[in-house]
Each structure stands twice: as C-alpha cells, then as structure tokens.
Amino acid sequence: MKQKPKKSKSRKPQVVHPTVLCVDDDIDLLKAVASGLEDRNYHVLTASSGSAAMETLRSATPDIIIADLRMDPVNGFELYQQIKNVPRNTTIPFFFLTAIDDPLAKRYSSQLGADAYIIKPVDIDELDQLIMKRLGEKRSS
C-alpha cells in the first residue's frame, strides 16, 4: 500500500540581518540607533567608547561598524585606524555617523577608506538602506 507524502507546512524563510557594531559616547543616541536597527532585525552590538569597541572586536566580528567622530579620549578617525590595523578587521565596512558637517572631515574619512559619512540626525530607514546597499556590494565582490 502506497503512503501519501506528508504535506509540509510552508514556512517563510527567515531573513537574517547582519550584525552591526555601533559606537557613540552619547548613550541616548547610541540606544536610539541600536533600537531602530534592532526593530529592523539587525543584531546590534554597542560600545560607548573606542576602547569598548576594541574590546568588543576581540570577541566578535560584526558585518559593519558605525561610529561617531567626536568621542573622547579616542575620536572616530583614531578608532577607524585602530580597527583597520587589526588584519581580521580590514574588510569590515565602516560608516561614520556624526554631527560634524564639515567637507574636510568628510574628505578625510574618504581618504582613510571609510564607506560612508552620514550626518546626524539620521533617518533609520535611510541608514538601513545604506547598510544593505553596502553589504550587498561587499557580498557580490
């Protein structure tokens, strides 16, 4: 006697969003950006200083890093250089998210190799699109 195959319940594939490391010494803004990205299904790691970010990177490899420029004692440019000096971090895309609307700072970030220079306040939907666009480019290259 032939058995009928069991019907499997079709499940929607779960979309897995990347891991993002957000670095900002403004705790309220850090929480707001993290919450907005988590609402869009990102796994978010946070750090409130450059040293905390470096500590996080010892045990985790995010898909992308988003950092403020104006932080103490290590500013965003210095953090970028510290991160990129670690060989396993060289391919992680890096966005600056800053209130510093300065063409020279933007040019310098580009010369360093940053992937984006975003002026605060940021629209989370636009940030989401920028992240997905950059990671899509990374995956296809």
Number of domains: 1
Average pLDDT metric:
89
CATH topology, what is it called?
Rossmann fold
Poorly predicted ranges: none
Query: Approximately how much beta-strand content do the residues carry?
Result: 15-25%
Identify the strand order in the major beta sheet: 2-1-3-4-5
Count of alpha and pi helical runs: 5
Q: Identify the CATH architecture.
A: 3-Layer(aba) Sandwich
Q: What does this protein look like?
A:
There is one protein chain. The protein has 141 residues and is an alpha/beta fold. The protein has one domain (19-135): 3-Layer(aba) Sandwich (Rossmann fold). The chain is built from five helices and five strands. It has helices at 27-39, 50-59, 76-84, 103-112, 124-140, and strands at residues 19-23, 43-47, 64-67, 94-98, 116-119. A five-stranded parallel sheet has the order 2-1-3-4-5, sandwiched between helices. Helix 4 (103-112) links the parallel strand 4 and strand 5 (116-119). The mean pLDDT is 89.
Helix and strand topology:
Elements: E1 19-23, H1 27-39, E2 43-47, H2 50-59, E3 64-67, H3 76-84, E4 94-98, H4 103-112, E5 116-119, H5 124-140
Parallel strand pairs: 1-2, 1-3, 3-4, 4-5
